[in-house]
Amino acid sequence: MVATLSHLTATDIQALDPYAFRAVIGKRVIHPGGRRSTEELFGRADFQPGQRVLDIGCGVGTTATTMARRFAVEVTAADISPLMRERAAANVRSAGVADRVSIEEADITALPYPDGTYIAVDGKKPA
């Protein structure tokens, strides 16, 4: 596993997908829309303390960490990429929210989570 940018070879860099490359160089918000879209999502979600939230495609865990801190929710943060999960776990530990954020492996095309387990974006449990 690649630990830092200084240890990457040219071959390592070429093998990284664009999102993994951004994570390796320290970019913390790596999704379309950036912080603005995240804040708009938060405004619509109406999170309540203690709710369970699923962050699929969590990347480096920035959004999961923010939700746990700001809204006191429990977050399952999942990503298919081992590199992203490694970075997310480190960021969650560093932020002191490991008791409220778990990092898991999951593929968005085959989610292992039962329907109705997590809240929907509008803050309501799915039907």
Description of the structure:
The chain is α/β, with parallel strands linked by helices and 127 residues long. The chain has a domain at 33-105: Vaccinia Virus protein VP39 (Rossmann fold). Helix content is 39%, strand content 13%. The protein has five helices and three strands. Helix 4 (62-71) links the parallel strand 1 (52-56) and strand 2 (74-79). Mean pLDDT is 81; it is low at 1-5.
Number of distinct helices: 5
In spatial order, strands of the major sheet run 1-2-3
Per CATH, the architecture of one domain is 3-Layer(aba) Sandwich
**Secondary-structure element series:** HHHEHEHE
Strand content: 5-15%
Distance between the termini: 40 Å
The major beta sheet can be summarized as: 3 strands, parallel
- What kind of assembly state do the chains in view correspond to? single chain
List unreliable stretches of 5+ residues: 1-5
